[in-house]
């Protein structure tokens, strides 16, 4: 083992070690990467994403920035690159969510007038409308990646920048564009809902 002091090995030490050390890194983060991938492309494909993520991480461990305190953003970046190959499957799943009025951001909460502004902190995670699922499905891949790393993986701007190898300014601009799309979808739904309720409700 790398660390003989009795203290828990750092991610950098685990990546610099042997296969046993790397196995500890897998045990530490595999479930987290799986949950993220499964929300994007479903459980079956997610298993392959996790396996490929850690295989690539092991093969490219020499590329890890040893000044980083955690390997998780780096692993999310590898997983995101692999998920881009599943863009069609992800878009298809979001459209299915939209047809069934499922919650594309997984919150299960009810939308309110404040949720558009709440997106400043976690990007409209409380909205449950089909319009939002449609908006997510229509997002360019690069914007969707930033959004979901922020809203689902709960990475900071700096961590997203590390994961995607882009600047923090680019992260911010992509999130701002995405927020505008989601706010528009929320506002459109709210207007339509108010009209329908005022005229007798849904299916009346």
Question: What do these coordinates show?
Answer:
- There is one protein chain.
- This protein is an all-alpha fold and 204 residues long.
- It has 2 domains: 9-86, Orthogonal Bundle (Rna Polymerase Sigma Factor, Chain: A), CATH 1.10.1740; 101-204, Winged helix-like DNA-binding domain superfamily/Winged helix DNA-binding domain (Arc Repressor Mutant, subunit A), CATH 1.10.10.10.
- It has helices spanning 11-16, 19-41, 43-59, 72-83, 87-99, 115-122, 130-138, 141-151, 157-164, 168-198.
- 34% of the residues are buried.
- The model is unreliable at 107-128 and 192-204 (pLDDT under 50).
- Give average pLDDT, whole number: 78
Query: Termini, distance in Å?
Result: 68 Å
Total of DSSP H or I helical runs spanning 4+ residues: 10
Query: The biggest beta sheet, please?
Result: none
If classified by CATH, what would the architecture of the largest domain be? Orthogonal Bundle
Main features:
204 residues, mainly alpha, Rna Polymerase Sigma Factor, Chain: A, 10 helices, 0% strand, disordered C terminus
Q: How are the SSEs ordered, and which strands pair?
A:
Elements lengths: L10 H6 L2 H23 L1 H17 L12 H12 L3 H13 L15 H8 L7 H9 L2 H11 L5 H8 L3 H31 L6
Task: Give the structure's gist in a few sentences.
By secondary structure, this protein is an all-alpha fold.
């Amino acid at each position: 083992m790398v660390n003989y002091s009795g203290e828990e090995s750092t991610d950098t030490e685990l990546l610099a070690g042997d296969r046993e050390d790397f196995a500890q890194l897998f045990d530490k983060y595999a479930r987290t990467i799986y949950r993220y991938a499964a929300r994007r492309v479903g459980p079956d494909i997610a298993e392959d994403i996790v396996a490929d993520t850690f295989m690539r991480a092991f093969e490219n461990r020499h590329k890890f920035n040893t000044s980083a305190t955690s390997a998780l953003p780096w692993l999310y970046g590898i997983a995101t690159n692999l998920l881009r190959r599943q863009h069609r499957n992800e878009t298809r799943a979001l459209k299915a969510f939209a047809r069934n009025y499922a919650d594309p951001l997984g919150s299960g909460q009810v939308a309110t007038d404040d949720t558009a502004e709440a997106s400043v902190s976690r990007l409209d995670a409380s909205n449950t409308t089909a319009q939002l699922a449609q908006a997510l499905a229509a997002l360019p891949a690069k914007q969707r990646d930033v959004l979901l790393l922020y809203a689902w993986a709960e990475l900071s701007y700096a961590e997203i920048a590390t994961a995607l190898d882009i600047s923090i300014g680019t992260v911010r601009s992509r999130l701002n564009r995405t927020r505008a799309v989601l706010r528009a979808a929320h506002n459109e739904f709210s207007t339509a809902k108010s009209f329908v309720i005022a005229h007798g409700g849904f299916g009346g």
